[in-house]
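Re: the pair you flagged

First of the two:
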Amino acid sequence: MYAAVRRYEGIVDDAEAGRLVRESFLPSLDDIPGFVAYYWIDAGNGVMASLSVFEDKDGADKSVEFAHDWIIANAPGLFPNPPQVTEGLVVASELASVKG
């Protein structure tokens, strides 16, 4: 698995950014081959981050390109600064076990 983390600073409206991500960005992720999971994180004070997980590097690369294009088309004023992007091979992971 591969993951891409994007950290955005200077977001001018955290609530609106979250709404747009939920309503417009998330539904399109299934179109990227190898999509596994996505998380949108509100760190407060105009800082937000995303974690995208894909089966392979190609999917992770495409998600970074897709996110860039989506922001330009849908919310350039909300995201005034380019993100800091970290992408790489997932070398350890864990999921919670089902209790009960």
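Second of the two:
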Amino acid sequence: MSLFGFGKAQPTSAERISAVENELKVVAEMHTRMVKICTLKCVDKTYREGELSKGEAVCLDRCSAKFFEAHQKISDHLQQQSQQQGGGFGMGA
């Protein structure tokens, strides 16, 4: 039984570390996917210039913002489902 009397045991240090490691893996995978998708969508494949054009930079900014927002909404939804089912430690993404 927990300190607060909710009947759940508190996660151990190893479980917390594992949850944080999983969180980092999810964030790293999201970043990798975002870079790949947004680069394919926004960057001209002919690489005519050494710098990003203004249009490419704006596209990348918007694409990454939308990608992150979608990822956050999905993570929040999954966390709510997990909490309703009584599982998880609620680490968030």
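The longest helix spans residues 54-84.

-B.
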